[in-house]
Amino acid sequence: QVQLVESGGGLVQAGGSLRLSCAASGRTISSYRMGWYRQAPGKEREFVAVISWNSGIIQYADSVKGRFTISRDNAKNTVYLQMNSLKPEDTAIYYCNAYSSSQYDYWGQGTQVTISS
Question: What is the pLDDT of residues 55-85, one digit of tens each?
C-alpha cells in the first residue's frame, strides 16, 4: 500500500504561485509513475501533469503548459507541482496519483487551490 498526502494548497491572487507537495509513505514510489490531477466544482477530474519513474518522461495538460512544473525526489519519496502565473480557472482540488498498474493505483485526499481574480 502507498499512502499519499498532498500539501501546499491555499488561496492566492491571480498571477501568483504555489508549490504543491505529495509525500508518499508505506513503500517507495521510485518505480511508480506519478501524476497530478484536479477537480473543479461541478466538473470531472482532469489530468494536469505526469512524470515517469526516472523523470525521463514528463507530460502536461495544454491548459498548464509553460506555467506548471512537475518534479520528483525519489530519495524523499515526494513529488512536487510548481504552479506559476495562476489563473482563476486553476481553482480546484488537486490530487496526487501513484500508478504502477491497475492493481497498484493510489490517490491522495487532495489539497484545495483557490485563485482569486
Answer: 999 999 999 999 999 999 999 999 999 999 9
The contacts of residue 112 (CB under 8 Å, 6+ apart) are 9, 10, 93, 94
Cell numbers linked to 86: 495562476
Q: What are phi and psi of 94, to 5 degrees?
A: -105, 130
Choose among 104, 85, 107, 79: nearest CA to 95: 107
What's the first-to-final CA gap in the chain, in angstroms? 40
How far apart are alpha carbons 113 and 20 in whole angstroms? Answer: 9
